[in-house]
Amino acid sequence: MADQQLNAPPCASSPVPTSGIRHINRRHPDRFTVVGNHLAQHRELSLTAIGLATHIQSLPVGAKVTIKCLADRFPEGEVRIAAALRELERHGYLTRTRERLPSGRVITRTVSYNNPPAMRASSVQSPRPAPEAAEPAPATSTTLTAPPLPTPNTPDLDCHRTATTLLADLRRQDPRLLLAERDIRRLAPAVAAWLERDIAPEAVRRTLTADLPAEPIHRPAALLAHRLTALLPPPLPAAPPAGHRPDPLQNCDHCDRAFRAPEPGRCRACA
Q1: Integer Cα distance of 118 and 200 in angstroms
Q2: Are residues 160 and 99 in the same domain?
Q3: Are residues 114 and 64 in the same domain?
Q4: Is the separation of the CB atoms in 211 and 223 below 8 Å?
Q5: How many domains does the chain have?
Q6: What is residue 110's three-state secondary structure?
Q7: pLDDT, tens digit (0-9, with 9 covering 90-100), for 14-51
Q8: Could you tell me the residue range of the domain that residue 94 belongs to?
Q9: What is the CA 270 to chain-centroid distance, rounded?
């Protein structure tokens, strides 16, 4: 009888896992969106909110993301979509602000954040402890979300070209303001918003380059983004129509106080 071989190597383990998910990944040459694991594996967002955030991040700038448009696009109704949008707002992936235009029309500006500052410190949380273990106290973040860059109310190709040229030319005035192409593309709509408010390009240039720090500027795009947002002038008030004259002065029939009105009668207080 042959002797037992005690030093025989064990059977090689199979490279294919016996359970759990397997991934077969192929490179996307175009038409793809990078989504962070902090969103895809978020422990507090619903699947509807995660899917909706992924869809919104894949859309081009200017796409409509109203509740009605999203409800027309997906089988979920307006109630579920509205709830998912509120989830994304609570966790910093979305902001919605209402703004009144100079014409008096009220619009909603929506900004999507693919990597909110609060998520960068704790992108994917570790597994939760067993039920009998005490839950750790929730961490508080003191990181502030940067306000969104201004955008023009009406797209204007010529205005956008002027903004792009202005940003690319800043390095002639100060070599520290050398910007990458992606930064110019990101900041150009903000400059266009200034130009839309009848601010001359040279005035925008002076605002962006005035009183620069003496030390090296390590993040010129961030400095310019702050100035474009914090120093944005208000729109010009509507000019009065040509030849407009104020109403003539009248004496109130009741209190004899002078007031302006097109015809005699009572002042506002007595009326």
Answers
A1: 37
A2: no
A3: yes
A4: no
A5: 2
A6: strand
A7: 566 667 888 888 888 888 888 889 999 999 999 999 99
A8: 34-118
A9: 50
